[in-house]
Specification:
Six copies of one chain form a homohexamer. In chain A, a hairpin with a 4-residue loop joins strand 13 and strand 14. In chain A, the strands form three sheets. Chain A has an eight-stranded mixed β-sheet with strand order 4-1-9-10-11-12-13-14, with helices on both faces. A four-stranded mixed β-sheet of chain A has the order 3-2-7-8. Chain A has a two-stranded parallel sheet with strand order 5-6. Chain A is of the alpha/beta class. Chain A is about 30% helix and about 25% strand. Chains A and B meet through strand 14 of A and strand 8 and strand 12 of B. Chains A, B, C, D, E, F: It holds the Pfam family PfkB. Chains A, B, C, D, E, F: This is Sugar kinase. Chains A, B, C, D, E, F: Belongs to the carbohydrate kinase PfkB family.
Chain lengths: ~350, ~350, ~350, ~350, ~350, ~350
């Protein structure tokens, strides 16, 4: 069984029920999630061995997060404890023409205060096959960015496959650095990058282009720009999203292997139950496909896109769909019949 | 007032809220339902006199089911008490491309252990006009099948109209018999059969055909095959369902009287609030139409299909729509305006 | 800052959850609302100074309504206390082809028993710019109608802009008068009328016409009929609603200034979370636009229609959308992306 | 099986959860109850045949009440339909030193508007053994009082046992009459009266006394005063309540048969889950005991007091305890061990 | 009407339901509270004019707090907006031998970052009669302590009565100062101090004593020690709490006027619904009594202690008891009878 | 770290909320628990390594149980999958004089159908220190009893300490055997037995005695009777429970080491939040104490009894109290103060 390590922040998610606005809420549903952990949950559900590395505060709220990680069958063996608080995000779920709203409450979180050199990456990566991180972590604090760099360097040195999700969040990046100061050094060890080209060029400080994701002629040249500064880069993937409204999305995907473009055809996603974490579901599907000899490139991008679609029907950050459910949808059956 | 008797199992239904998956549920909504009882509830709501015959365990959960039957204005006069437990089904309500999921938990239920000859059908049918059963009951156990056969024979002997809903559930039928061993003998007393032709041919052990439900030329011949072994058969009806996804169905219907095909035109049903029991709503509408001199054949199939559509908007197994609401929809007004 | 006064009834709203029918409900969500108060809430959210005049019973339920008014930042300075009870309306929220259902429980409400001359309108209107009322209030009782007339006369005498929402509710008007006995006298002081032409002609006792809201040729003539008996009338507006089903509406709007027709283009509204109060949201947007020098007539009707659309996505009677959200939609962005 | 008829009002009860004050409530639990109906529910649970006579509005809320009556296995055969609304009472459940709070919202209720002579008491009482009413009904309106008088006269004429619960509610009696104008005529047909002596003397216009419920010498003389004007009176009973605080009561009872005093010894009731309806539970126990040959007078008052105690542990108006549970407590076992 | 200003932090309170432990919670009830605001709410409920001064973040969660302040009828006229986040406290409500548990999550809160001189106290205090603060605010940060000192100095200069609640929270005070470095300077302007003597001596850096709160001989000498460094000090009060277990408290109080000790007798408080904020309820009662000419010193301490008792029966931080309810309990009636 | 293995059944627990009776419930809280698993959870919380061996069905409900085991930090390494269904128990939580009610729904559960020899006990016990089982498992079916015997024999052979909780449930034992046919053979390998003497004598087929648990003279002789047939027996312990009512218990304990009696003094437990699993909490405390060199015999029984007390304040089957909380109570501090 392949083993995948992910590193990042897990947050307490406090969401209003029944599409209520924040000002109407008298209670919040409490779940836990965070981009890199969400990827680990997908992979654990697909039967891979997974581990999540993070920093949690030593209090009851940190313990709840720890319990959730265990419940999802992800290893907690190398989690560090300390710091002031668990980061929080408040979520108001939109509907129709009203979009969902996220209020970040991440100041002074445990992982923002993580000390460089405090994680023993060598030991963590000993029997690992894959390391996954995303652009959210270096956006939190310079300490978090430094530890992230230690991780990719250690993974690189140990020959472990590295996947990077660009994941740009403009409301983070508040510690005085811009993505282009930090991300190029981190991305250069990547074997797989997930993101759209605009974000990729912005984060790597390259000139803005005008990608047409339907144009199989021009796209390869644009994707190729990312390969220049990442010598190990094998795959770039992009989630294609068309937002009709908050309850209705169209979702497809692209996988580029440095030579050919593979499309997952666009699917209707309506109604949207919860779209947070759908990009992580895509990422999880991508890693699963690339680690799975039974799936070729087309099969991989189809699986990733179908996983992303199904995530939209599931409350919370995690994609709790099974391989069988994803394969059924990837295979073209979107009828949603009752299973009994 | 006409009196209709139905016989079958009533189950405790435990469903997750807000489209949660089973693994996310910390509580279950508890309601009660079962195909033949659901039909009785529809008919009680339409003002008919109804009675439900079943077997319930003598414990608090059985008492809750009993209370629900009374609440729905269905007679409990001939319910038998005994056995280990009330059958349960767990329901996870899907959305969009994710279908709903039913987990049956019916082992050792009270009705599975019912004793042949323990029900006094003669007395039950004394002032009844109609008897309804479905293919779920003979699928439970050989005892349940035997009692079902006693019921149709008694009804036949007493000249009562018999309706049969084929209702094939592959996960039942676990006691060593196949439908074709049991169903033909049961179905041969039918005046009305509800089901699609594939199921009908499979259950009666006939050769598979390839029905085209839009083809008014070939359909009658196929339906006619069912009349051969059921000498009293007057009507066959089929619910037409096209599943766009779990939240979006198209629903129509067919009524065949041995001569002509009557269509209820296909309607959009979106969003689907709860589709469990929608076939029973169709059946209830059909019986109502056939018992009601004010509705001709076209009116009957229109009423049945509109009842089925409205059921999809109602949580739980029962069709709680009123005659007026169904007639409004059957009459073509699907605007769903606020009534105030 | 402009100050707007509204006058009318605030009700306790008891609604079933999760689309449950009344007969399935074991609890009710309790909120508060009423047409004229809903307009005040919209305007308070847009930053205007607002005040709501009403009559509340001196009991705990009346106190809850009072607290809600304060919470919404609407002045309670001139609320009168007394009477038997707070009016109630029960709401069952429909879905798809099943419409929502309102059961009024307003007999003997505090405002129905209000005494003429008991409100000091002169003092209330001292520093006010705008007075808004609707056709619901005169429908409650002859006392309520009398006080409403005192209000419009006082507003007229003091030169305050008066807006009138026709708001016809056939299940009210039970005290022996018809709209045409009461409404013409009330409407004649209007500067702004909101309503469709059928209702306007019915309430003013004029002959039924057959308006085509897409016909820019014939419409002005019909709207002009309303100007005859209302010498100060400047604007008439109409909400355009096309009800596909209870979960899917199309919403547009018309503003007529006595000369030209301004259209807000029709928008898809799906899913509908809660459509009660959407007309009040339109009215609130209209008053905001007319009081706001930055919005021209086209901008005003676009804002009003977009406010109405967004209201459909919000639970409860109030439009809790912000100016920024409404402007984004009015400006054409209905993508409902996550804000984070 | 003995048959008991009760007559009165059933209300929608809207209660806050978790001891919340009204001003904190965002939803209400909705149940149904009313003194005379509560008595019928107790008796139905004890296996007697019961029927409740009342007037319900023809709307969805009235239908919900009707459904609840059926669910509780009480006959609805002679319920009258009409009127504006179902009466409501709001309940805030206290704790410790904070008492529970009831806000009546009963103006214009269906039963307040009942027409004299509109109920066919002769037919209702044909096969009945017992009629029960309480002092709440004549307090509602003069019409309700008139129908109540028709009922007791008919019951008297037909030789049916009549029980009367004094049930004084000072906030009712608002139609211009005092209890002493109405109650003596009604009470004079009683075979059984439940109430404390202060209330009895007040309602019958007699001089205030100072009863000492522990004094077996003086009590009989005081109870005897009630026998003077009620020639058929056989039993008077009193619930003994000592309120330590809202969560802690002491409950006992007295039964007087015109000769001897029978005491049910005082029991600790803590915590109190819900004390509304505990007097009705006492009344139900009393009727059960008096109709049951197996219970002598001491057994009857012990059963009634134990039923009253157990009611305090049950949410809602009804005493849902079984005969076995009540007999266990009446027999002295208050250990509350887990039954499994 | 007297006007009272309070200054401090308002927090989002996230509490588990039904006595669940944090690790069992899947949702949190969301309310708002904070010592000084809680006092303002009590006083607003008693009919005084009140205003709360604080700093709130400009985001949806800050807006919710703002709305709650308005709902409670407390003026928001001088609230400052800015900073990262609203402070949070998580609450797990204990029962019996298991105590409640608070997890503070207040790092980087808006008020911790408040700028000295940024509040215009002169304008705020212009028509005020009383200023209240507590020892929580100077514990948050040195900036918060500095602004608190500005407030008491301004109030002192303007001749406004100042009350100080010692309120020691050991888990705060993390910015490098101890209470004895900060509190003496703040306390010296007090007219009224609430606290126990141990805390008072600790915070003012005085030697530990061993107070016996039942000893009327020795107590005055100990209280007198506080008067030395606070020249305007008139009253010192102490809440007497005896904790039998988390669900059972005994509550009394002491008021000392520099000469005599006034006792409020100890009352049983069981069950405890929620004890958070009970000290603030005491403080609110104390201020009310001292501002109210109708209450003498004994009446004042009785009112304060009864308010504290009643708070224990109310969920949330606020004492939502009315004057009438408190006076009833202060007058000795703790029977908790149903009010109807 | 010591490792403890437990073996038995884990059930889905469906409990009504807010003390509702079954007939009032419209939803059930869903948790998981079972005597032997509950013991494992206690020990995992105390920091021991634990593993639970059981049989789960391969369906979504079985998966939920699996997830719960992981969440509680108990190893799932040797769980067997198969069988029809997960056993269920329905729980109605009593209050005061009304006891809680359990309805078992365990027919055809996965573990009832477990095959002898299907568990590899040797491998499971390889690095284990302790094995715990209870009398519930052999009561389920003869297969379950057989596997239980295999386990104790294997543990005995490998020199592992064995603890046995007698746990008599009369409603189980339905497969034709009585405890005395099965239990003696199982118990004879015990090192520690938990139970009261009546149960012990009944289960081992010995003559009924009349133990007086306060009598230090006679008790040792009675306990000594158990040592005769269990050659390795070192300790017998008994939970002392005095049930005042369902909400008020008194709890103490006895530990006998074959020579001396050690008492944990009786403590008041009120209110009782949930008493299910309190015996397992006692057992968990006992094992912890006996495995912990820092606790002597008196310390061990004090810890066990305090753990049992605290469990009564916690919802669900598990004792989620920490070592620190238990030690605080065992040390005599039952004040339940707020921890903040």
């Amino acid at each position: 069984m392949k083993k995948v390590i992910t590193f990042g922040e897990i947050l307490l998610r406090l969401s209003t029920e029944r599409h209520l606005r924040f000002s109407q809420a008298t209670n919040f549903n409490a779940t836990y999630g965070g981009g890199e952990f969400n990827v680990a949950v997908s992979l654990a559900n697909y039967g891979l061995e997974t581990e999540f590395v993070t920093r949690l505060p030593k209090n009851d709220i940190g313990d709840c997060a720890l319990q959730e990680i265990r419940k999802q069958n992800v290893s907690t063996a190398n989690i560090q404890f300390g710091g002031d608080r668990l980061g929080i995000y408040f979520l108001e779920t939109g509907a129709g023409t009203r979009g969902s709203k996220v209020v970040y409450d991440r100041a002074s979180s445990a992982i923002a205060q993580i000390e460089p050199s405090s994680i023993d990456w060598k030991s963590i990566f000993k029997d690992a096959d894959w390391f996954h991180w995303s652009g959210v972590t270096p956006a939190i604090s310079s300490n978090a960015a430094a530890v992230c760099l230690e991780a990719v360097k250690a993974a690189h040195a140990m020959g472990i496959t590295i996947s990077s999700d660009l994941n740009y969040r403009s409301k983070l990046w508040k510690y005085g650095k811009e993505p282009k100061d930090i991300m190029p050094e981190l991305l250069k060890y990547s074997h797989v990058i997930l993101g759209d080209l605009d974000t990729a060029f912005f984060m790597t400080g390259q000139e803005k282009q005008d990608p047409d994701y339907q144009d199989m002629e021009s796209l390869p040249q644009l994707y190729d720009l990312l390969y220049k500064s990442a010598p190990d880069l094998k795959y770039v993937a992009t989630t294609l999203r068309y937002s009709i409204n908050a309850s209705h999305q169209k979702i497809g995907g692209i996988l580029y292997d440095g030579k050919d473009i593979y499309y997952a055809k666009t699917r209707e996603v309506t109604p949207v139950v919860d779209r947070v974490g759908s990009g992580d579901a895509f990422m999880g599907g991508l890693i699963y496909g690339l680690l799975n000899d039974d799936l070729d490139k087309q099969g991989t991008i189809d699986f990733a896109a179908a996983a992303c679609c199904l995530k939209h029907t599931i409350t919370g950050d995690f994609n709790l769909a099974s391989i069988a459910e994803i394969e059924q949808l990837a295979g073209g059956d979107s009828s949603g019949k009752v299973s009994r």
